[in-house]
Amino acid sequence: MSLDWLDSELQRLNDHGLLRGRRTIRPLGDGWCEVDGHRCRNFASNDYLNLAGDPRVLDAAQRALSEGGAGATASALICGRTIWHERLEQAIADFEQTEAAVLFPTGFAANLGTIAALVGSDDIVYFDRLNHASLVDGCRLSGAKLRVYRHDRLDVLERELGKADSESRRWIVTDSVFSMDGDLAPLADLCDLAERFGANLIVDEAHATGVFGDGGRGVCELSGTESRVAVRVGTLSKAVGCLGGFVAGSEQLRNWLWNSARTQMFSTALPPSVCAAATASLQIIRDEPQRRQRLHSLSRQLVELLRESNVTVPEGVAGPIVPVLLRDAQATVATAASLFDTGFLVGAIRPPTIPQQTSRLRVCVSTAFDETDIDELAAAIIRVAGQ
Ligand SMILES: *Cc1c(COP(=O)(O)O)cnc(C)c1O
Known about the structure:
15 helices, Aspartate Aminotransferase, domain 1, Aspartate Aminotransferase, domain 2, binds pyridoxal-5'-phosphate, alpha/beta, 14 strands
């Protein structure tokens, strides 16, 4: 069996400016990195609060590494749930102010396993068209009927909910921060609809944990909807700076996921060092709210500078994810390359990650940087992308 057909498929991607490669990065600390021998400021990572390299986080990881070993050696179900996992699950439940929390190997695995464990094939899922790939795959795996909506047209969602067979169990599934647009889901309105039509809400706070809300608990906290959302999913791999996914909720939900979420049951648990690092990082997020305040002020500075120079930043951008809409895929790649030449690493986002003709640069602000870095980045973007 030959895989030669892959050559023509890869060529086709290349012809459309859609071929992806991989860069190798050497982190240099405080937001700087080296790529192909070239030093640059990393505005593409999700380390919003600059915690991945924090000495307190590293110290916690190192201690657990010597005590707990390099790997967990088994799934949590068998014998991989160590004292570091237990502590982290308790720390997440305390942080999120829920009864319980369940760890997963990644945020992707949390969404896949949780949705497949909760949603049945007779159910109906109302699904935001801009949701993350892991939510898409979780819903596909569940076999449920999928109704795609857009969060700027909740009147359409309302009509759809009104049409549905009231016998089926219903779910509304949404990101809380849309990862490619940087805007927020209208959670209060979604809760109103869910309650009116007897649906449950599953909210993925991947880009929101540590970033939104006074306590850093995310957009559910910010919008006052925590008690109205049945299932909250998060990740430890973005603002928390480590790795791992989690679900925060009731003990009942935890017990169900322990018994039926296959990505939790049949995949090796996180390394103890990662659990200890994430526990330390969550403590910093609780103790140092000034980090997220500063993150928002730097993000606002960037958006204002870009808009003053007529660079298109979509409405609704509410935090550290700042898209710069260029539309054409090849132009986006070329612009990101010239920013790289001037010392800024930013994402070039193209189809199929996003719809055709909506290609964009995606800048992720981090508290690793200061006002001068933001001024310099804005000037560089305006030079290459301004009208
Ligand atoms: C990044 C992301 C995930 C996946 O989380 P990982 O921990 O990186 O696997 C899930 N959902 C959303 C919305 C994300 O942005």
